[in-house]
Amino acid sequence: MSSIIDISQTLAKGIAVWPGDTSFTNFWVMQMNQGHSCNVGSVTMSLHTGTHADAPLHFLSSGKSASEASLGAYIGEALVVDLTSNGETVTVVTADDVAAIGEVKAERILFKTSSAQSEKWNPEFAYFDAGAANALVTRGIRLVGIDTPSVDKSDSTTLDSHKIFARADIAILENLSLRHVNGGSYELIALPLKFAGMDASPVRAILRTP
Hints:
This protein is of the alpha/beta class. It has one domain (3-209): 3-Layer(bba) Sandwich (Glucose Oxidase, domain 1). The protein contains three helices and eleven strands, in the order βββββαβαβαββββ. A nine-stranded mixed β-sheet has the order 1-11-9-5-6-7-8-4-10, with helices on one face. A two-stranded antiparallel ribbon has the order 2-3. α1 links the parallel β5 and β6. It is globular, with a radius of gyration of 17 Å. The mean pLDDT is 95.
Protein backbone atom coordinates (compact mmCIF):
# COMPACT_ATOMS: atom_id res chain seq x y z
CA MET A 1 0.00 0.00 0.00
CA SER A 2 1.31 3.45 -0.89
CA SER A 3 1.26 6.45 1.44
CA ILE A 4 0.23 9.94 0.34
CA ILE A 5 2.32 13.01 1.19
CA ASP A 6 0.60 16.35 0.64
CA ILE A 7 3.10 18.88 -0.77
CA SER A 8 0.61 21.70 -1.29
CA GLN A 9 0.48 24.94 0.68
CA THR A 10 -2.78 25.57 2.52
CA LEU A 11 -4.82 28.33 0.89
CA ALA A 12 -5.97 30.56 3.73
CA LYS A 13 -6.14 34.20 4.72
CA GLY A 14 -2.65 35.57 5.27
CA ILE A 15 -0.82 33.30 2.82
CA ALA A 16 2.13 35.13 1.28
CA VAL A 17 1.59 36.51 -2.23
CA TRP A 18 3.82 38.36 -4.65
CA PRO A 19 3.88 42.11 -3.77
CA GLY A 20 1.10 43.87 -5.67
CA ASP A 21 -0.69 40.62 -6.51
CA THR A 22 -4.22 39.73 -5.41
CA SER A 23 -4.36 38.59 -1.79
CA PHE A 24 -6.28 35.46 -0.88
CA THR A 25 -9.75 36.09 0.56
CA ASN A 26 -12.62 33.71 1.17
CA PHE A 27 -16.22 34.41 2.03
CA TRP A 28 -19.65 32.78 2.19
CA VAL A 29 -22.25 33.42 -0.51
CA MET A 30 -24.85 31.26 1.30
CA GLN A 31 -24.79 29.79 4.82
CA MET A 32 -27.09 27.31 6.51
CA ASN A 33 -26.87 29.18 9.81
CA GLN A 34 -28.32 32.16 7.96
CA GLY A 35 -31.32 30.17 6.77
CA HIS A 36 -30.03 28.96 3.40
CA SER A 37 -30.45 25.38 2.20
CA CYS A 38 -26.68 24.81 1.94
CA ASN A 39 -23.29 26.41 2.42
CA VAL A 40 -21.70 28.02 -0.67
CA GLY A 41 -18.26 29.56 -0.46
CA SER A 42 -16.31 31.81 -2.80
CA VAL A 43 -12.69 32.95 -3.04
CA THR A 44 -10.66 35.65 -4.74
CA MET A 45 -6.97 35.03 -5.35
CA SER A 46 -4.13 35.30 -7.80
CA LEU A 47 -3.61 32.12 -9.79
CA HIS A 48 -0.02 32.20 -8.49
CA THR A 49 -1.08 31.90 -4.85
CA GLY A 50 0.31 28.92 -2.99
CA THR A 51 1.31 25.77 -4.86
CA HIS A 52 0.68 26.32 -8.55
CA ALA A 53 1.63 25.45 -12.11
CA ASP A 54 2.87 28.20 -14.39
CA ALA A 55 1.58 28.08 -17.95
CA PRO A 56 3.77 29.50 -20.75
CA LEU A 57 1.22 32.31 -21.17
CA HIS A 58 2.53 33.68 -17.86
CA PHE A 59 5.73 34.89 -19.52
CA LEU A 60 5.17 34.45 -23.28
CA SER A 61 2.47 36.53 -24.96
CA SER A 62 1.69 33.70 -27.39
CA GLY A 63 2.29 30.88 -24.89
CA LYS A 64 -0.14 28.11 -24.03
CA SER A 65 -2.71 28.69 -21.31
CA ALA A 66 -3.42 26.51 -18.28
CA SER A 67 -6.22 24.67 -20.09
CA GLU A 68 -3.78 23.64 -22.82
CA ALA A 69 -1.29 21.98 -20.47
CA SER A 70 -0.04 18.51 -21.32
CA LEU A 71 -1.32 16.66 -18.26
CA GLY A 72 1.12 13.76 -18.58
CA ALA A 73 3.92 16.00 -17.34
CA TYR A 74 2.18 16.39 -13.97
CA ILE A 75 1.79 12.68 -13.20
CA GLY A 76 4.56 10.13 -12.84
CA GLU A 77 7.87 9.25 -11.27
CA ALA A 78 9.57 12.18 -9.55
CA LEU A 79 12.84 12.74 -7.73
CA VAL A 80 12.98 15.07 -4.72
CA VAL A 81 16.42 16.65 -4.45
CA ASP A 82 17.16 17.86 -0.92
CA LEU A 83 19.56 20.82 -1.08
CA THR A 84 19.24 21.43 2.67
CA SER A 85 21.02 18.29 3.86
CA ASN A 86 24.36 20.06 4.44
CA GLY A 87 22.72 22.71 6.62
CA GLU A 88 23.68 25.65 4.40
CA THR A 89 21.23 28.29 3.19
CA VAL A 90 20.37 27.81 -0.46
CA THR A 91 20.31 31.10 -2.37
CA VAL A 92 20.49 29.81 -5.93
CA VAL A 93 20.30 26.42 -7.66
CA THR A 94 23.28 26.04 -9.98
CA ALA A 95 24.48 23.70 -12.70
CA ASP A 96 26.74 22.09 -10.08
CA ASP A 97 23.67 21.23 -7.99
CA VAL A 98 22.09 19.60 -11.03
CA ALA A 99 25.28 17.68 -11.85
CA ALA A 100 25.44 16.40 -8.26
CA ILE A 101 22.14 14.59 -8.76
CA GLY A 102 23.88 11.99 -10.91
CA GLU A 103 22.10 9.68 -13.30
CA VAL A 104 18.39 9.30 -12.61
CA LYS A 105 15.47 7.97 -14.61
CA ALA A 106 12.84 10.33 -13.24
CA GLU A 107 11.36 12.79 -15.74
CA ARG A 108 10.25 15.10 -12.93
CA ILE A 109 12.64 16.74 -10.46
CA LEU A 110 11.55 18.73 -7.40
CA PHE A 111 14.03 20.84 -5.44
CA LYS A 112 13.84 21.29 -1.67
CA THR A 113 15.61 24.47 -0.55
CA SER A 114 16.07 26.29 2.74
CA SER A 115 14.13 29.38 1.64
CA ALA A 116 10.54 28.22 1.28
CA GLN A 117 7.92 30.91 1.94
CA SER A 118 5.93 31.33 5.13
CA GLU A 119 3.01 33.66 5.73
CA LYS A 120 5.36 36.64 5.38
CA TRP A 121 6.69 37.50 1.93
CA ASN A 122 10.47 37.10 1.63
CA PRO A 123 12.08 38.11 -1.68
CA GLU A 124 15.35 36.35 -0.82
CA PHE A 125 14.27 32.94 -2.06
CA ALA A 126 16.19 30.31 -4.02
CA TYR A 127 15.81 30.17 -7.79
CA PHE A 128 17.46 28.52 -10.80
CA ASP A 129 20.23 30.36 -12.57
CA ALA A 130 20.46 29.94 -16.35
CA GLY A 131 23.17 27.30 -16.01
CA ALA A 132 20.96 25.12 -13.82
CA ALA A 133 17.97 25.58 -16.12
CA ASN A 134 20.00 24.58 -19.17
CA ALA A 135 21.50 21.62 -17.31
CA LEU A 136 18.00 20.38 -16.48
CA VAL A 137 16.98 20.77 -20.13
CA THR A 138 19.84 18.49 -21.21
CA ARG A 139 18.46 15.79 -18.91
CA GLY A 140 15.30 15.59 -20.98
CA ILE A 141 12.95 16.05 -18.04
CA ARG A 142 9.26 16.92 -18.40
CA LEU A 143 8.68 18.89 -15.19
CA VAL A 144 10.67 20.89 -12.67
CA GLY A 145 9.44 22.06 -9.28
CA ILE A 146 10.73 24.20 -6.44
CA ASP A 147 9.49 25.14 -2.97
CA THR A 148 9.79 28.89 -3.60
CA PRO A 149 7.56 31.40 -5.43
CA SER A 150 9.51 31.40 -8.70
CA VAL A 151 12.07 29.53 -10.76
CA ASP A 152 13.63 32.97 -11.42
CA LYS A 153 15.12 35.52 -9.04
CA SER A 154 12.53 37.74 -7.34
CA ASP A 155 13.67 40.90 -9.13
CA SER A 156 14.11 39.31 -12.56
CA THR A 157 12.39 41.12 -15.43
CA THR A 158 13.60 38.78 -18.18
CA LEU A 159 12.46 35.49 -16.54
CA ASP A 160 15.28 33.59 -18.21
CA SER A 161 14.75 30.25 -16.46
CA HIS A 162 11.02 30.32 -17.16
CA LYS A 163 11.77 30.80 -20.85
CA ILE A 164 14.51 28.16 -20.97
CA PHE A 165 12.09 25.62 -19.51
CA ALA A 166 9.29 26.71 -21.86
CA ARG A 167 11.43 26.32 -24.96
CA ALA A 168 12.11 22.74 -23.88
CA ASP A 169 8.42 22.13 -23.07
CA ILE A 170 9.21 21.56 -19.38
CA ALA A 171 6.29 22.12 -17.00
CA ILE A 172 6.87 24.33 -13.94
CA LEU A 173 5.59 23.89 -10.38
CA GLU A 174 6.24 26.61 -7.79
CA ASN A 175 5.62 27.07 -4.07
CA LEU A 176 5.73 23.37 -3.28
CA SER A 177 5.67 22.44 0.41
CA LEU A 178 8.62 20.09 0.92
CA ARG A 179 9.80 20.77 4.50
CA HIS A 180 8.49 17.40 5.64
CA VAL A 181 9.71 15.45 2.59
CA ASN A 182 12.94 13.47 2.42
CA GLY A 183 14.99 13.34 -0.74
CA GLY A 184 14.29 10.33 -2.92
CA SER A 185 11.98 8.82 -5.51
CA TYR A 186 8.21 9.21 -5.45
CA GLU A 187 5.19 9.33 -7.70
CA LEU A 188 3.96 12.89 -8.30
CA ILE A 189 0.37 13.92 -8.99
CA ALA A 190 -0.18 17.69 -9.38
CA LEU A 191 -2.85 18.45 -11.97
CA PRO A 192 -3.60 22.06 -12.96
CA LEU A 193 -7.21 23.15 -13.31
CA LYS A 194 -8.62 23.74 -16.79
CA PHE A 195 -8.62 27.54 -16.82
CA ALA A 196 -9.19 28.73 -20.39
CA GLY A 197 -6.95 31.60 -21.46
CA MET A 198 -5.25 31.96 -18.07
CA ASP A 199 -1.56 32.02 -17.20
CA ALA A 200 -1.43 29.63 -14.23
CA SER A 201 -3.43 27.32 -12.02
CA PRO A 202 -3.38 26.23 -8.39
CA VAL A 203 -2.69 22.52 -7.94
CA ARG A 204 -3.24 19.99 -5.15
CA ALA A 205 0.17 18.38 -5.33
CA ILE A 206 0.87 15.03 -3.70
CA LEU A 207 3.66 12.50 -3.62
CA ARG A 208 3.03 8.78 -3.27
CA THR A 209 5.56 6.32 -1.94
CA PRO A 210 5.64 2.70 -3.07
